[in-house]
């Protein structure tokens, strides 16, 4: 019964996420939907390789008044989106390639490390709740895929 409740909540979240998404993110969300992916989460976030140290520090403190990037999580991929005027810069990581996700400094600075193919990338979330939700989703996906693979 619990799984059914969680699934219906996820579907409700998907519909509300699409409706509440910022205008500049809508074209990427449309492409994701056209590719057959189900939206799980959108969150303002910065990826370390796309931001300066100063931008990262401001994001950690929640002092950035302008959102410079988003993490879009679907049932198949994680997309790092940096919206632009004419086009968006999007980096995509398939969920199956994610080896692990870890908190940095007990998540005191809203930072997670995402491990993919032996590399690690820091992600700074503007809101700690978004980071926690992403962490839990990835951990649950990894646990469930491990059971399905017989690991």
Explain this structure:
The chain is α+β, with helices and mostly antiparallel strands and 151 residues long. The chain has one domain: Pleckstrin-homology domain (PH domain)/Phosphotyrosine-binding domain (PTB) (PH-domain like, Roll), CATH 2.30.29. It contains four helices and seven strands. It has a seven-stranded antiparallel β-sheet, with helices on both faces. A hairpin with a 6-residue loop joins strand 3 (77-82) and strand 4. The radius of gyration is 15 Å and the shape is globular. The chain starts with a helix and ends with a helix. 21% of the residues are buried.
Question: In the CATH hierarchy, what is the architecture at level 2?
Answer: Roll
Question: In order across it, which strands form the biggest sheet?
Answer: 4-3-2-1-7-6-5
Shape summary = globular
Gyration radius (Cα, Å) is 15 Å
Structural class: alpha+beta
